[in-house]
Amino acid sequence: MRRPLMTITAVAALTLALAGCGGDDEPDDPPPAGGEPAPSPTVAPPTDPGPPEHGWEEQATVDFETGEITAEGFNDLIDSETPQWAADPVDTVEVLLHLDEPAGTVDIDQAGGGDAPTVVVTVSDLADGSVEAIRYEIELATGDDELYRFDTGQASWRCQPERGHQDFDTEPCL
């Protein structure tokens, strides 16, 4: 299944971390004459993700050295809210990875079925000079209520040409 212009909030964080983005060496602007620092600019106002039954407000995290994905609170949400999306493995992963936010092209493949499917999400065409694509391999498990829950996950990335490895790996890109 191919979904253009979809993204993952984790993609933005992963892309920034892998690209080595950080502060510049320029000093901060001095505070205005009143002595108070100017407010920090914002890219977009915060959005209300809606009630928990419509999604997961938290974020999956990726260990950038190992690629291990953790999703603290995700299964608790499923246990307490029994959301309808948790009845489908692809829908469950779409909520887990926040695939409703634009950033690249998303390919989703489901391997296996039954009680322990694996869903592989590849986000490519990223607007990043170092990372060309990120792959998430998410293993789910079915509870007694037949809803899917996050079991384990692994992230890996492929670098832009001439910026590092061209296979999916956890080594940093240049």
What are the salient characteristics of this protein?
five-stranded antiparallel sheet; 7 strands; two-stranded antiparallel ribbon; alpha+beta; disordered N terminus; 15% helix; 174 residues
Total strands = 7
Poorly predicted sequence stretches spanning 5 or more consecutive residues = 1-10, 12-32, 37-53
Question: What's the domain count?
Answer: 1
Secondary-structure element pattern, one letter each: EHEEHHEEEE
Largest sheet, strands/sense/barrel:
5 strands, antiparallel
**In which order are the strands of the major sheet placed?**
1-4-5-6-7
Put simply, the count of helices is: 3
Average pLDDT figure:
79
Estimate the strand proportion.
25-35%
What is the terminal-to-terminal distance? 30 Å
Tell me, what's the shape? elongated
Please compute the radius of gyration using only Cα atoms. 18 Å
Q: Look at the helices and sheets and give the structural class.
A: alpha+beta
Helical residue percent band: 10-25%
Biased composition (Pro residues): 30-52
Protein name: Lipoprotein
Region (Disordered): 20-58
Keywords: Signal
